[in-house]
Amino acid sequence: MGGNKNKIKSILIHGGITLSLFFASCSVAEAVSLYLIPNSGTYNVGDSFSISARVNSNEIAINAVEGVIAFNPNELQVISISKVGSIMNLWTREPEYSNSLGTISFAGIAFNPGYTGTDGEVLSVSFRAKAFTDANVSFSSGAVLANDGAGTNVLSNLEGGLYIFEATSTMPRIAELSPTMPRVAEPSPEAPVSLLPIIESSTHPDSNKWYSKDKLEVRWDLPDDVDFVSFLVHPREVVNPGTISDGLVSSAEFEDLRDGVSYFHLRFHNSAGWGPIARYQFKTDQTAPSSFVMERATKEDLTDPTPELIIEPSEDATSDVSHYEIKIGDKDWVRMDLGETEESYEVSVQPPGEYLVLARAYDEAGNYTVIEFPMIIESIETATVDNVITKTEVKDKIIVNGTAPPSSKVIIYVVDKMLLGGQLHQPDVDIVKTIETISDENGDYTVEIFDLRIKDYTVYAYTVDNREAISYRSNEVAIYGFSLIEWMKEIVDFSVWLRVISILVLLYLIKLLGRKTLSLLSRGKKIFKRSKTKREEKNTKELAKLRKDMEEEIELLRKLSKRRGLNPEEKYLKDKMTQYLKALKIFSSD
């Protein structure tokens, strides 16, 4: 009779919830809601079940969800919280629960452009029923923020759930038990419901998840009136652990577990007799998925920079295959986003070359199998650099001419050092300028490059098509037109420099001869004064002309320093000429 009343009560409650949800949806068509799925259910005391917290944004882009879920800790116990499949990308408050306070709190963010949909999972919670009652689970607080730049709270509804917990079913007769049972049990009257064990596991904390561990650890709290316990691990869900005492213990360990779904069965005994049987489900899978095959979808065009890879699915004998990961060359492992209708993966843009692709198939327990797949990306037609013109009248400008496939993108790179000995340049190293252009219908291109310092450079180019496929690097052209020697040639007549060098050599010889040589020159000078010839007069004029030229060059550098400042080479030249001019004046006066 009591069972019928509970069923009628359940029907009325379920019907009331359904009607209220129907009228709410009719009246608030555009409401943003935070709700629980399922929002009702009937379970046996001791059973575990999961509830998912979800959001309905009703076509409004949202980027943050937070809330606190409340429950009665005397009626329910949280076993675990799962974030798998959540629309949240970042948790500003990690989901956490308190079985003493009866709360579950969380706060997360969905990256731009946010989430838009009617059934976005935020997190899921595994509960265990503790008492014969009707339990309410509700949101004590919540917020849903729009992705509108202002963080507007658009939440309209918070919807909880009502769950009915019934007494455990009658114990099965011994004839219904497995004939391989290691112990025999006789039916016995059940003790009060307060003796129902609450089981937890550190090795298998979530009864609905698969684990690769070969060891089970379980624990439970012992009420004060319990004098001993009886427990058993068995692959069947409905098994009586019997009436043989396993001692007054609050934990147990089991090794060498079998693959598959198994159950830990536990019951308490006190002065009133045996209590109800609590069952804890755990899933074990220690075997990796089977090997699988990967191949390229189309092999006709090997220049495709984003080839599609087809996966012949792997299989797992115990748990299902969860997902695949891929590693291309020396890049990091990434999770594959497979197609909706077939297991295929589009590779991100890759430059030409030969790659070793590794792929891993994971099962639900985290075991995986690895395969290798060689992949080739061929180069599209390469550009050429045919000519580089150095504009001597404009010191910081060059013109680059070359060829490429007609009407294609060409990227020209200028590197600030020479590539000696045929050594290839590494990408993104020492690059001074990057210029993009489009070749004409004949495949020719011309670009002008400005703002280059006085250095030696190397120029090369790449071709890029509309698929973002990139070619191998073109030939390399060295630019010598910016060297210091060439610049000096432009600003000073070469004959002047020849005379300067001659003077430097002469001064060096004078230093070697020493004082005696100077004395001889002094006496010779007196003789020369007495018998000056036309040839000596000519030498005097040439020396005066040389002094004048050096003074003009020094004045030129002085003016240049006022306009823009002198670089180290120019300053060194000015100082040296000044020193030599002073020495030349002393020599002339002698």
Features:
Immunoglobulin-like; alpha+beta; 590 residues; 5 helices; five-stranded mixed sheet; single chain; elongated; 33 strands
Topology:
Layout: H1 2-27, E1 32-37, E2 40-44, E3 48-56, E4 62-70, E5 76-82, E6 90-98, E7 103-109, E8 120-129, E9 134-146, E10 155-159, E11 161-166, E12 199-201, E13 210-211, E14 215-220, E15 228-234, E16 251-255, E17 260-270, E18 273-274, E19 278-284, E20 293-296, E21 308-312, E22 321-328, E23 334-335, E24 344-346, E25 353-363, E26 368-377, E27 384-390, E28 398-403, E29 409-415, E30 431-438, E31 444-449, E32 457-464, E33 477-479, H2 484-491, H3 494-530, H4 534-563, H5 568-589
Parallel strand pairs: 1-10, 2-11, 13-19
Antiparallel strand pairs: 1-3, 3-8, 4-7, 4-9, 5-8, 6-7, 9-11, 12-14, 14-16, 15-17, 17-18, 17-19, 20-21, 21-24, 22-23, 22-25, 25-26, 27-28, 28-31, 29-30, 29-32, 32-33
